[in-house]
Amino acid sequence: MNYPHEAHQAREFAEKAMTRILDEGLAPSPDIYELWYVYYAGISPEVTRALDILVSNRQKITEDRCRDLHTRFLSDARNEEMIRRAGDQVKATIKNVTGAVRDVKNATTSYSGTLEDVSRKMGSAKTVDEMRSLVTNVMGDTQKMLEHNHKLEHELEQSSTLMEELQRDLEQVRKEAMTDGLTGLANRKAFDAALDRVSSDMQSEQGSFTLLMVDIDHFKSFNDNYGHQVGDQVLRLVARTLIEGVKGKDIAARYGGEEFAIILPDTNLTAGVAVGNNLRKAVATKDVINRTTGEKLGRITMSVGVAEYINGENMTDLIERADAALYTAKHNGRNQVAAAPTPMGKRSTGA
Questions:
Q1: Domain coordinates of the chain in residue numbers?
Q2: Are 231 and 219 in contact (CB under 8 A)?
Q3: CATH T-level assignment (fold) for domain 188-339
Q4: Rounded to an integer, what distance in angstroms lies between the CA atom of residue 49 and that of residue 67?
Q5: Where is the GGDEF domain (predicted)?
Q6: What is the 3-state secondary structure (H, E, C) of 251-306?
Q7: Distance CA 61, CA 229 (A)
Q8: pLDDT for 229-257, tens place per residue?
Q9: Are 66 and 31 in contact (CB under 8 A)?
């Protein structure tokens, strides 16, 4: 995203953004600030439309919603801009190297002609001065040839270094595009891709996997009582617990808001319920502490819905079954794991 504004314009947009952030009771974090700066600058129709819809529908503008909008509209724009710049650098590098190679080719042709000419004249040279003149000409052209070669070596060395830097930058872009900025978990985009990949693998291998949908109990009231910064702290605590609790090929992702999703390849329903209970118990043992005051704010719990993949099942149906199991866990008192029943007439691949 480019910000081609004069200083006075930038100050105006910045002041409006900060005023709105404070009025909405939001944390002035870089991503939320950028979202509102872009909104008032009017440089992203998508951002403007999305925020205007929230306002017109009288929906509460939360930090989670702001971050989701930032991820959806601005992170991708930044990544696209970085990729565009990388493409321009690659083109410039190829142009420079091509030019150096062309110069060397021309110099080689000229040098070859010089050697042929000298070879022909050496047979007819009769004096030392004539021989000295021929040798001097060869040495001069040889020096030019060496200079062209050195230039090509320098261009190739520079291009190699640049390509390595571009590779690192693009890998970072790819990683950021698939990672939730707040928790460090895989984001929704990465989750969707992983779910498709795992389901395809299990179909071809006739294997089984389990999906866990996880939701923090009473998160909204916790967020309202202690503030959004503490709410973010809770999300990070849960995310860290999930990361510590999954292994190997398991994939933990932030599905949206206070809801998380975990894909457990090569795992049946019984094992998936066991993993859900282990994670639930691990979270329940951890205190949430106000980092500013050091005060213990209590402990959090979470509910888990588990569904085992049925061979050939649509991923939307699998998610709906896991979500329904999560609702059952909530309805039955929270802080528990519920398993989704296998639909009538269907058989799980792990049965």
A1: 7-61, 78-177, 188-339
A2: yes
A3: Alpha-Beta Plaits (3.30.70)
A4: 16
A5: 207-342
A6: EEEEEECCEEEEEEECCCHHHHHHHHHHHHHHHHCCEEECCCCCCEEEECCEEEEE
A7: 15
A8: 788 889 999 999 999 999 889 999 998 88
A9: yes
pTM (two decimals): 0.59
CA distance linking residue 142 with residue 136, whole number of Å: 10
CA distances from 145 to 25, 138, 296, 298 (A): 69, 10, 75, 76
CA separation for the pair 97, 158 (Å, rounded): 9
What SS3 class is residue 170?
helix
What is the per-residue pLDDT across 285-317, written as a single tens digit (0 to 9) for each?
988 887 777 788 888 999 999 999 998 889 999
The structure tokens 């974090």 sit at: 29
Q: What is the DSSP letter of 347?
A: -
Phi, psi dihedrals of residue 216, rounded to the nearest 5°: -75, 130
Q: For every residue of 129-151, which 3-state class applies, written as one string?
A: HHHHHHHHHHHHHHHHHHHHHHH
Tokens at residue 132, please? 């000295």
Instruction: Note whether 177 and 289 are within 8 A (CB).
Output: no
Active site (catalytic) residues: 258
* Two structure tokens written together for 135: 């040798």
d(CA 43, CA 9): 13
